[in-house]
User: Which sequence fits this backbone?
């Protein structure tokens, strides 16, 4: 088996259309989904119009509606009830992947976020060291590999590690290939900054670092916004380790890097228009200070212009109207 599998991104129309390089089209948009174990009702997420933390039942209804709105690509975030940081049980989210693929099959392309922050008691994206002031890289990668395998075995078309540990791309690729899962696409949150724009997401994913921990924020693992060189190091490293798709996150504040990196590194690039960015646009539109459809269209166009092949946006489910307006 070739370690550099270029056919992976040619294997179906979904991913071929994701990797094209012109216009803003519904084909290029990925809708995030949140599903929590044991929720009685879908819970609205503050700031994110029309986005809910679903339960297992409402998730299927939501995806059914989204398919009706022309959305075909999704990024799933699972929020299990139990929390631990070693030998984490990934079966809740894997079960949601299985249910979605059983119900909708190839009608949808399903990426699954791989991280620990919705599962750990402290809300960090990895396993804490004994002192509680740093993440243990290799212990964290071990858990991430198990999660990625569970989701890929359940039928995820793509696994997307968002933790920012070192070496996780190579470790996950090797594990997938070793398990006969060579068609599973690996999307790296390669260039993910330590940003103030993740607030609504952390409500939806129940993943904020808990106060009181020695490690207070994610600055020891996410990138410093004032150090663009690190973006290059991460992107080149993850490309070399076998990521099929690379990501810049957040979007608008980092368009400079999206432009430069996407020209220099010949992989498909995703941009994550993150929760705080999306909420800011919605707040502007809600005050009647901008036309909602035109506002979103303009920003989506900026991402495509800067070199994004695909855009993760909470508004994918409205985009058919926005793009037609
Ligand atoms: C963490 C993760 C984050 C997002 C997705 N996965 C950021 C964080 O909590 O630090 C942000 C997505 C968004 O804000 O829309 N694994
Ligand atoms: Zn995380």
Assistant:
């Amino acid at each position: 088996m070739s370690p550099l599998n270029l056919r992976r991104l040619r294997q179906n129309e979904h991913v071929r259309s994701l990797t094209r390089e012109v216009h803003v089209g519904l084909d290029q948009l990925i809708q995030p989904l949140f599903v929590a174990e044991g929720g009685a009702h879908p819970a609205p997420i503050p700031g994110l119009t029309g986005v809910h933390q679903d339960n297992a039942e409402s998730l299927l209804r939501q995806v059914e509606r989204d398919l009706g709105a022309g959305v075909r690509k999704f990024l799933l975030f699972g929020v299990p009830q139990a929390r631990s940081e070693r030998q984490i049980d990934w079966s809740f989210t894997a079960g949601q992947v299985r249910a979605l693929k059983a119900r909708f099959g190839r009608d949808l392309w399903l990426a699954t976020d791989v991280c620990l922050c919705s599962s750990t008691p402290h809300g960090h994206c990895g396993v804490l060291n004994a002192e509680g002031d740093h993440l243990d890289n290799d212990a964290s990668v071990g858990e991430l590999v198990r999660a990625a395998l569970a989701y890929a075995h359940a039928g995820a078309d793509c696994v997307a590690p968002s933790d920012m540990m070192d070496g996780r791309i190579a470790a996950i690729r090797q594990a997938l290939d070793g398990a006969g899962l060579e068609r599973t696409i690996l999307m790296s949150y390669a260039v993910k900054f330590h940003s103030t724009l993740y607030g609504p997401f952390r409500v939806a994913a129940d993943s904020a670092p808990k106060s009181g921990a020695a490690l207070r924020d994610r600055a020891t693992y996410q990138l410093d916004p004032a150090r663009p060189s690190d973006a290059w190091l991460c992107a080149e490293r993850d490309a070399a380790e076998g990521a099929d798709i690379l990501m810049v996150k957040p979007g608008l504040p980092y368009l400079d890097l999206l432009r430069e990196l996407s020209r220099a590194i010949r992989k498909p690039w995703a941009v994550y228009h993150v929760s705080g960015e999306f909420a800011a646009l919605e707040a502007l539109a809600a005050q009647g200070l901008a036309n909602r459809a035109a506002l979103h269209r303009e920003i989506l166009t900026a991402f495509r212009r800067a070199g994004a092949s695909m855009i993760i946006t909470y508004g994918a489910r409205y985009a058919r109207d926005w793009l037609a307006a």
Observations:
- The chain has one domain: 25-324.
- The chain has a mean pLDDT of 96.
- The two ends are 47 Å apart (CA to CA).
- The CA atoms of residues 105 and 155 lie 9 Å apart.
